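Q: Convert this sequence to structure tokens.
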Amino acid sequence: MADNRAAGGAGAGPRAPLTVPFTLGYTLVLLGTGLYARLGDPGTVRDLLAGSSTDVSHLSERPLLTLLVSALWAVGGVTSPYLVAFPLVLGALERRLGGVRTAGVFLLGHVLATLLTEVPVAVSVAAGHLPDSSLRRLDYGVSYGLIACAAALAGLLSPRRRWALLGGIGLALAAGILVDLDPLTGWGHAFALLLGVLSWPYVRRNARWRPRSRRSDDASPGFAHSERASGNT
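A:
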């Protein structure tokens, strides 16, 4: 039995990317836009990024389009650390949850974290607490959705790995605040992390498999398959 599993695992290696089509396709899109940001005309790239910004002005004019195009870029382009983390995190979540539900978790973080940061800005400008220039700012990328997916993935891991992952996310966000010094982005990342944690009941209920508890491991090592049928990709 162990030999058969080992042989199957070895044979499945080349097909592994095909088991996560959402992650693979999205990663290719991010690579494409990242290459264009690096090699394209700087003025055109600057205009495209400004037009993709999820600021109050753009969200009030064309909310759906703005939320869509802002998620087609990774801050930093092809050298972005998000491009390394993205396929690892979303691929791991998609193998456990399926493509459609993984996309749903990503959108939950991307959309709600954006609105939770930008709506207060709009209210503050309307109340006169912030200048009108606050309605336009450069804010784009996949970080909110990625962080929400990472936090959701933590809910499917064993306790030790779960808290290690959450701790790593927290340290990365703290370091990002020190480097970026953008309070709105910092709040957006915190909201995305919280949204991912709040999705734990959903992802656990719909997971294809997740590690057994330590007590179950002693009795029967391996993974616990969910009672729900898999195949939601």
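Strands lie at 209-211, 223-225.
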